[in-house]
Amino acid sequence: MKTRIRELRAKTGLTQEELARQVGVRRETIVFLEKGKYNPSLKLAYKVARTLGSTIEEVFTFEEEDLA
Description:
- This protein is mainly α.
- Helices cover about 60% and strands about 5% of the residues.
- It is built from six helices and two strands, in the order βαααααβα.
- It has helices spanning about 5-10, 15-25, 25-35, 40-50, 55-60, 65; strands at about 1-5, 60.
- The protein has a two-stranded antiparallel sheet with strand order 1-2.
């Protein structure tokens, strides 16, 4: 999975800590999401996308092998 969290977070001026607080997770979770090392729940993906002013599809990209 690839994400645009870092890019979109920078555009909105949010730190990892601020984004984490707004979506109800620890900062480390945001770090793992940004690195593509953690697959979020649908609820978390929605909260992240909404907070960043985007859609889930704009924030997260799943490769074919991710979906197999």
